[in-house]
């Protein structure tokens, strides 16, 4: 009989379960072949109960092992999910560790600087004390020397005064004697010479003073003239420089305007050629009509009574046709309004945040094994996608795989083209013309095909603009006229750059995001806004933006976008018949690719870029998670990154939002593929409310 096992033994993993001995193998196999897989059977022959014996049903080891194996597989799947979250937390921890290391290094550096400054301060204090002592000693020595010099000076002055007195007295006596002698020899001659000398001296003094004054006035006049000339020349130079700058700006503006005018003239010339062809065809038609009218006139002139009756009938039919045309136009406008309303109701029924999944095809040169990705309803709704997980080996050596099934609004296989993808979002783009805010963004790992889907020559951005042009022209017959303006920005390392501005000013200007909470409208300060008159203008605009966008090579992708790229199309429509006005915004976002630090091999600047990209995408996930909780008035961390703050109104319920999740078909990227699909599933389950139309009727 099989012994009863304790509860602790039954709760052990399959690797720790008790195994059967090899002795009863043959009887066990023969018994197993005679019973179903899930049936129970005794390990030994049942014994009839006897008095004093204890009997119990036999323990089904095989069924218990299979149940434990299933339990172990489920636990292992949960552990893999936990390990994936653990790896994500580990990456965040590594980012935090790197930040802590930087802060510690900065703290050590500041400590060293502080210690150096403290030592310098102590040295300065010592030097100041030494200098004070030296100054005191020098001051005392100087005072003694000054007193000694004063004493010597007094003695010398006294000696000089006595000697000078004696000399003066001697000279006075000599002068007195000479004067007496001269007086005696020729007092008159002396007086005459003195007068002559005095007059000459006075004349020379006057001439000298006049010459000095004239020279001074001349010098002052020259200085003033030179100063005036210098100021005049400086003003002329400044005016000339300003004029040259204005001329250069004018020439640049004229050159840009000339390019725009040239493009417009080319388009107008093409349109005129088409109109000329139409006019020639109309001339031919009018010639035929004229001949027919002449025949009618001849016929009518032949019979006045019949002519009058025919004219009355024609006038009546014309009035009826005009009335029918008026009624038809009114019905057409009413039907157009109803169609717009129904179209937006269909979009709302599909959900404000819709999710499309697209698997890119394998590229030339990719030798890695393809992942097992299937589309179960490819011939029907095309919504499901199933990804086979990696092989798992159980403790008993059994190999198994787990299938991960996902259901989105639409799934596109590797063979799908951009035209097929755009056909599914065309009605959403049309909502922008109807006055709604629309946001379409691409999410996925680097190299999954986001930029190709959004920004290629036949991508979503050019096709959306082309459809809007076509629809706007069709609506002109119903009284609508639209103006379209485009902006292209990137978010690089949490900094907003203007991709349509000057290349040399790309990272020089500071741009801020501002929200109008009443109108639910977002603007970015100091951003270049370009009028989009023709679809050809969009092509040149895309080329300018792609040239300025930040890209770099990593181990995961040789041309990886290092920034989030956002194309903003503002649409303003006015109906001249009804007076209605609509304002719509179309945001098309190409997110930077998420990367694992271990696989990308990022270092230096690439490491900083990768950390910034992963942080902003993580913040976007936090916003989606907060919205998914559905708490009224709950905090949503939009401000944690520039990306989520820019898309606040696109995620908060006042926009029709669509997310593309792009995945790679390679087995090597399987973990990133599953991570992207799980995030997309979370987004698809998020309900954010109903978008409001931005429209009003003139008073």
Automatic annotation (TrEMBL):
<dbReference type="InterPro" id="IPR027417">
    <property type="entry name" value="P-loop_NTPase"/>
</dbReference>
<dbReference type="Pfam" id="PF00225">
    <property type="entry name" value="Kinesin"/>
</dbReference>
<dbReference type="GO" id="GO:0005874">
    <property type="term" value="C:microtubule"/>
</dbReference>
<dbReference type="InterPro" id="IPR019821">
    <property type="entry name" value="Kinesin_motor_CS"/>
</dbReference>
<dbReference type="InterPro" id="IPR027640">
    <property type="entry name" value="Kinesin-like_fam"/>
</dbReference>
<dbReference type="GO" id="GO:0005524">
    <property type="term" value="F:ATP binding"/>
</dbReference>
<feature type="coiled-coil region">
    <location>
        <begin position="489"/>
        <end position="516"/>
    </location>
</feature>
<feature type="coiled-coil region">
    <location>
        <begin position="290"/>
        <end position="352"/>
    </location>
</feature>
<keyword id="KW-0505">Motor protein</keyword>
<keyword id="KW-0206">Cytoskeleton</keyword>
<keyword id="KW-0547">Nucleotide-binding</keyword>
<keyword id="KW-0493">Microtubule</keyword>
<comment type="similarity">
    <text>Belongs to the TRAFAC class myosin-kinesin ATPase superfamily. Kinesin family. KIN-14 subfamily.</text>
</comment>
<keyword id="KW-0963">Cytoplasm</keyword>
<feature type="coiled-coil region">
    <location>
        <begin position="161"/>
        <end position="214"/>
    </location>
</feature>
<keyword id="KW-0067">ATP-binding</keyword>
<keyword id="KW-0175">Coiled coil</keyword>
<dbReference type="InterPro" id="IPR001752">
    <property type="entry name" value="Kinesin_motor_dom"/>
</dbReference>
<feature type="binding site">
    <location>
        <begin position="444"/>
        <end position="451"/>
    </location>
    <ligand>
        <name>ATP</name>
    </ligand>
</feature>
<feature type="coiled-coil region">
    <location>
        <begin position="100"/>
        <end position="127"/>
    </location>
</feature>
<dbReference type="GO" id="GO:0090307">
    <property type="term" value="P:mitotic spindle assembly"/>
</dbReference>
<dbReference type="GO" id="GO:0008017">
    <property type="term" value="F:microtubule binding"/>
</dbReference>
<dbReference type="InterPro" id="IPR036961">
    <property type="entry name" value="Kinesin_motor_dom_sf"/>
</dbReference>
<feature type="region of interest" description="Disordered">
    <location>
        <begin position="1"/>
        <end position="60"/>
    </location>
</feature>
<protein>
    <recommendedName>
        <fullName>Kinesin-like protein</fullName>
    </recommendedName>
</protein>
<dbReference type="GO" id="GO:0007018">
    <property type="term" value="P:microtubule-based movement"/>
</dbReference>
<feature type="domain" description="Kinesin motor">
    <location>
        <begin position="352"/>
        <end position="686"/>
    </location>
</feature>
<feature type="compositionally biased region" description="Polar residues">
    <location>
        <begin position="35"/>
        <end position="52"/>
    </location>
</feature>
<dbReference type="GO" id="GO:0008569">
    <property type="term" value="F:minus-end-directed microtubule motor activity"/>
</dbReference>
């Amino acid at each position: 009989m099989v012994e009863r096992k304790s509860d602790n033994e039954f709760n052990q993993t399959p690797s720790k379960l008790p195994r059967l001995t090899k002795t009863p193998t043959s009887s066990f196999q023969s018994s197993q072949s005679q019973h179903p897989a899930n049936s129970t059977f005794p390990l030994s022959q049942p014994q009839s109960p006897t008095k004093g014996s204890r009997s119990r049903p036999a323990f089904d080891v095989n069924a218990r092992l299979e149940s434990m194996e299933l339990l172990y597989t489920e636990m292992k799947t949960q552990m893999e999910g936990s390990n994936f979250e653990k790896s994500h937390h580990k990456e965040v921890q590594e980012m935090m560790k790197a930040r802590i290391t930087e802060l510690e290094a900065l703290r050590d550096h500041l400590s060293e600087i502080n210690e150096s400054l403290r030592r310098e301060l102590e040295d300065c204090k010592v030097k100041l004390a030494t200098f004070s002592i030296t100054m005191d000693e020098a001051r005392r020595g100087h005072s003694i020397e000054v007193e000694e010099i004063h004493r010597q000076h007094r003695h010398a002055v006294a000696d000089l005064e006595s000697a000078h007195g004696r000399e003066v007295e001697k000279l006075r006596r000599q002068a007195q004697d000479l004067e007496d002698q001269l007086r005696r020899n020729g007092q008159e001659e002396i007086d005459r010479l003195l007068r002559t000398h005095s007059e000459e001296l006075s004349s020379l003094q006057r001439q000298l003073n006049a010459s000095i004054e004239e020279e001074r006035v001349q010098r002052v006049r020259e200085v003033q003239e030179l100063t005036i000339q210098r100021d005049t020349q400086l003003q002329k130079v400044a005016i000339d420089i300003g004029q040259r700058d204005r001329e250069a700006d004018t020439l640049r503006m004229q050159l840009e305007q000339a390019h725009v005018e040239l493009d417009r003239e080319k388009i107008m010339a093409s349109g005129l050629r088409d109109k000329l062809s139409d006019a020639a065809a109309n001339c031919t038609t009018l010639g035929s009509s004229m001949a027919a009218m002449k025949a009618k006139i001849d016929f009518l002139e032949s019979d006045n009574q019949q002519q009058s009756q025919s004219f009355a009938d024609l006038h009546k039919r014309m009035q009826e046709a005009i009335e029918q045309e008026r009624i038809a136009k009114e019905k057409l406008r009413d039907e157009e309004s109803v169609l717009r309303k129904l179209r937006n109701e269909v979009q709302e029924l599909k959900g404000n945040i819709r999710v499309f999944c697209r698997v890119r095809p394998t590229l030339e040169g990719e030798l890695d094994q393809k992942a097992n990705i299937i589309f179960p309803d490819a011939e029907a709704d095309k919504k499901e996608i199933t990804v086979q997980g990696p092989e798992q080996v159980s403790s008993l050596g059994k190999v198994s795989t787990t299938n991960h099934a996902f259901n989105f609004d639409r799934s596109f296989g590797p063979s799908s083209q951009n035209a097929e993808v755009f056909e599914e979002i065309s009605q959403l783009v049309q909502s922008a013309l109807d006055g709604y805010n629309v946001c379409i963004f691409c999410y996925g790992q680097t190299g999954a095909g986001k930029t190709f889907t959004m920004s290629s020559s036949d991508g979503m951005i050019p096709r959306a603009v082309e459809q809007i042009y076509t629809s706007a022209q069709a609506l002109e017959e119903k009284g609508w006229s639209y103006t379209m303006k485009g902006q292209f920005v990137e978010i690089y390392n949490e900094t907003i750059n203007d991709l349509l501005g000057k290349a040399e000013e790309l990272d020089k200007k500071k741009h801020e995001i501002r929200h109008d909470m009443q109108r639910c409208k977002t603007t970015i300060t100091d951003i270049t806004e370009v009028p989009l008159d023709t679809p050809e203008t969009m092509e040149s605009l895309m080329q300018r933006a792609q040239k300025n966008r930040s890209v770099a090579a990593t181990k995961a992708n040789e041309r990886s976008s290092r920034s989030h790229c956002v194309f903003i199309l503002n649409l303003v429509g006015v109906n001249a018949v009804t007076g209605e006005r609509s304002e719509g915004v179309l945001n098309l976002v190409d997110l930077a690719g998420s990367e694992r630090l271990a696989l990308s091999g990022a270092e230096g600047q690439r490491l900083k870029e990768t950390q910034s990209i992963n942080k902003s995408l993580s913040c976007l996930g936090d916003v989606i998670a907060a919205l998914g909780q559905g708490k009224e008035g709950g905090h949503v961390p939009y401000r944690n990154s520039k990306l989520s703050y820019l898309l606040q109104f696109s995620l908060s319920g006042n926009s029709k939002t669509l997310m593309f999740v792009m995945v790679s078909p390679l087995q090597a990227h399987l973990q990133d593929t599953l991570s992207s699909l799980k995030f997309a599933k979370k987004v698809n389950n998020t309900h954010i409310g109903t978008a409001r139309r931005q429209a009003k009727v003139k008073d």
